[in-house]
Write the structure tokens for this entry.
Amino acid sequence: MLQQAIDATDVIGRWEYDVPNDRVYTDTLVALVFNVDPALAETGASLDVFLAGVHPEDRARTAREIRRSAETGLCCTIEYRVCSADGVVRWVLDRGRIVLDEAGRPQRGSGVVIDMTRTRCRGEASPPDGHDPDRNPLENAAEHCLAAHKALQAVPEPLLQRMSDMLLLEVGRSLARLVDERRRGGVEAARAGH
């Protein structure tokens, strides 16, 4: 069931982080992908609870990047593996930002989590250009944006890297809205069927 929900779209969901109180809030799907109890995620769990769901080989690097974002207030884009509640290891792209107060202290953060497993583990059957005619055009655009973002990380042009970060954030927000619309449509269809 978790895999079917993720397959419906590449965006897993959104997260919010109350930094001073060390509370991360997510929806059910994000919680399950990180192997966190959804009820706990809804009421707020510590960052360490979510980091425990990150693959052990990626955990220290992921924590370092989050710490860097909290210190600088810069956008953060991290690709790492998670060990989900259903026992599947998935690749995710986590894109977000932590806002600092006037004194430079981290206050709150928000972002999106995008499933990258298909992209990372792409087989021969996938279209070579990354365009899948059966998906929403926004999902196809996200594939291309992710590829461009990865390529630009090797280019010593901070402006291009920041623009790529901003594009990814906006595409992620649009995908999150698409996911919400699909979920609402599914709930309404299920209600109509009863």
Summary: The radius of gyration is 17 Å. The CA atoms of residues 134 and 140 lie 10 Å apart. The chain has eight helices and five strands. The beta strands are 11-18, 23-26, 75-83, 89-100, 106-115.
